[in-house]
Every structure is written in C-alpha cells, then in structure tokens.
Amino acid sequence: MGERSKVTDFVYAAMFAALTAVLGLISIPLPFSPVPVSGQSLGIMLAGSILTVKQAAFSVLTFVLIGAVGVPVFSGLTGGLGILIGPRGGYYLGFLVGAIVIALLRGQSSNPWRLALANLIGGIGVVYLFGVAWLSVVTGMSLEKAVMAGALPFIPGDLFKVFAASAIGTAINKRLRKSRQ
Questions:
Q1: What's the pTM?
Q2: A GO molecular function for this record (predicted)?
C-alpha cells in the first residue's frame, strides 16, 4: 500500500499542477495593476478542495518549482525566478499556503458550506494576505494602494471561483467516497 500511495500522490500532484498551469492561459492584464486576472486561483482552490493536504502541497510546490526554473506555467505563459521575486511572487507563495489551508479546513467533511468557507479563507484570504503584502514590499506601494491594485479588483471573480471550486469539489469528493466503498 505504501508504494501505491506514493505513486498516487505524485500522479495527483502532477495532474493538479498541470491543471493550474493550463488555467494560467486565462490571463487578463489590468492597466492599473501588475497582477493579471488569472484562472490559476481556481486550480489552487480545486487542489485544496479535492486532494489530501500532502497531495495539495505537492501539487502547488510542483507548479511553483517548475515555474521557478523557467517553464512558462505562470499566468500569461511566463516563468522564471523573476516572476517569483517580482510583484506577483507573493501570490504564488500564497497559492502554496492557501491550498494547504483549504485542505486542512475541509478535513474529511463533505459539507459544501464548510468547503466554501475553506475556499474563502484559504483561496482568497490567505492568497491575498501573501500577495498584497509582497506587492506592497516589492513595488513600494502603500498597503492601501496594494489592496486597491492587488485585491479589490479580483474579489468578484474569486468569489465565483470559490463557488465553482466548492461545487466541483463537493461533487468529486462524493464520487470518490462512493468508489472507495
């Protein structure tokens, strides 16, 4: 069981890292912010909603490391250390912590409201905390301006992603539970 479990962890990590990269193809630059609108936060929410804590962490870590070495997996087909140390870097660190928080808060529950709350806290709260703080430090923006440029414009879309990730996660988790019985 141990060896099969490790293979499963790696396969899920690879699948969700790839999904997050593909969702980066949805990238809309905003003229007033160095951070684009991206589909990648949906991938992070889905990883936390469906995978175990370990699998979610492996998934996002794989995604970030692949991007760090230059493979263009970040939003807008970008990659490299420059992205991670630039204005968007905090969001990518927030993705890692956020996916772990979502999976931890979800636990073994199949309650859709609990999953939605986990996605709100981990997928928006944690990601914005890291992203906005890093944006402020790297650009020299005041924290207030960083919130205006790096959080407020994204809230409506991210709330939709919370709804989508929670609905998809609930449905998939129910199917997975049935298949294990």
A1: 0.93
A2: biotin transmembrane transporter activity
